[in-house]
Every structure is written in structure tokens, then in C-alpha cells.
Write a structure and sequence with these properties.
mainly alpha
Amino acid sequence: MTGRADDIAERLSAISEEIADFAIDSIREALRSGATSRPVAEKRLTQARRAVEKAAHLLRGVEAEATDGE
């Protein structure tokens, strides 16, 4: 399994960055339209990004455990 978990974790990290960009875009759009509070979409996107980051972190732990056991 060595390498597989790390590969998935790297892809998740890239997805996390895409979600962050999407969240920033939603903030920009809200500002352009005159919103005075944080957009609901941005809140959900931030939650999703954090979940993806957590998954990537957990997978890196699996990778570390797999190499420790060898």
C-alpha cells in the first residue's frame, strides 16, 4: 500500500485548493452584488475544504503507519 495513500492524499490536497479558490470566488461575487455578510455558499465550501484536508491528513497517517510496519 506504500505510496497509494500518499497519492490519494496529494490529490485531495489539490482538491482542497480548488475548493478554497471556489470559496474566494463566492466571496468576490457576494461583494460585487453588495452583500454585507458572509455567503452561505462560502461557509459550506469552507466546511467541505476542511473535511477534505482532514481526509488528506488521515491518509498521510495511514502512509506513515504502513512504512513503520515494514
